């Protein structure tokens, strides 16, 4: 009974020295921290670092519950979505493609390049120069990424297209591709799509 009276201190350590340690929603330190569990209370510890999965653990100091340890070490795990992607300034923006070849040849090349990366085209219209792929979904441990490519012709003379590589994240795993409200723009793209726009720029001239 006496062990349950009063606050308890935990020497809390993290494998990454610059990882943020959040306690009950407040950032209180990085890497290592002495945390206090109040008498008859609980705390929620969340550890965050870019490139690693976010971890959470609760400690309680209540009668009838396991007492908090004197020390606790948290080993962070690499974020598989982060490692499978690259940060870029070409995600979710229109990139201009100026062409000197004929529209027929350009359109054929565009379709070949797009289909070699995303195998389902949702909408295509050669006359207006519009193409949109279906969403391509990739599920990770703590994230779901959806990617699509949109092509629009913006000029006949000179022949010009705009391409947009749309990259979005849900911030959770196993998110349905149709749950639009759960996705937001991501400033990264999966490595598997990193060459799409450079290839278009190189070949559609």
Quick synopsis:
With 205 residues, the chain is mainly beta. The chain is built from three helices and 16 strands.
Structural notes for this entry:
The chain contains three helices and 16 strands. With 205 residues, the protein is mostly beta strands. Strands 9, 10, 11, 12, 13, 14 and 15 form a seven-stranded antiparallel sheet that branches. The longest helix has 13 residues, at 103-115. The model has no long low-confidence stretch (mean pLDDT 95). α2 runs antiparallel to α3 (196-203). β2 (20-23) and β3 form a beta hairpin. Helices cover 12% and strands 44% of the residues. The chain has helices spanning 80-83, 103-115, 196-203; strands at 8-14, 20-23, 26-30, 32-37, 41-48, 55-61, 71-74, 85-87, 94-98, 121-125, 130-133, 136-139, 144-156, 159-169, 184-185, 188-190.
Determine the mean pLDDT: 95
- So how many helices? 3
Radius of gyration over C-alpha positions, nearest whole angstrom: 25 Å
Please give the share of residues in helix. 10-25%
**Count of DSSP strands:** 16
Topology as H/E string? Answer: EEEEEEEHEEHEEEEEEEH
Characterize the biggest β-sheet: 7 strands, antiparallel
Q: Return residue spans where pLDDT drops below 50 for at least 5 consecutive residues.
A: none
Q: How large is the share of residues in beta strands? A: 35-45%
**End-to-end separation:** 79 Å
- Approximate shape: elongated
Q: Classify the secondary structure makeup into a structural class.
A: mainly beta
């Amino acid at each position: 009974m006496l062990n349950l009276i009063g606050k308890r201190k935990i020497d809390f350590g993290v494998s990454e020295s610059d990882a943020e340690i959040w306690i009950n929603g407040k950032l209180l330190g990085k890497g290592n921290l002495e945390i206090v569990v109040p008498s008859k209370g609980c705390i929620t510890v969340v550890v965050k670092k870019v490139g690693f999965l976010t971890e959470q653990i609760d400690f309680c100091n209540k009668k009838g519950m396991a007492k908090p340890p004197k020390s606790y070490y948290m080993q962070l795990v690499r974020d598989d979505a982060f490692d499978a992607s690259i940060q870029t300034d070409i995600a979710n923006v229109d990139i201009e493609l100026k062409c000197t070849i004929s529209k027929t040849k350009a359109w054929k090349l565009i379709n070949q390049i797009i289909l070699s990366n995303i195998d389902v085209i949702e909408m295509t219209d050669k006359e207006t120069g519009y193409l949109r792929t279906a969403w391509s979904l990739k599920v990770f441990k703590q994230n779901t990424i959806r990617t699509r490519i949109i092509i629009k012709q913006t000029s006949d003379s000179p022949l010009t297209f705009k391409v947009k590589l749309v990259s979005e994240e849900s911030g959770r795993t196993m998110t349905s591709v149709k749950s639009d409200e759960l996705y937001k723009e991501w400033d990264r793209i999966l490595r598997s799509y990193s060459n799409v726009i450079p290839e278009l720029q190189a070949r559609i001239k």
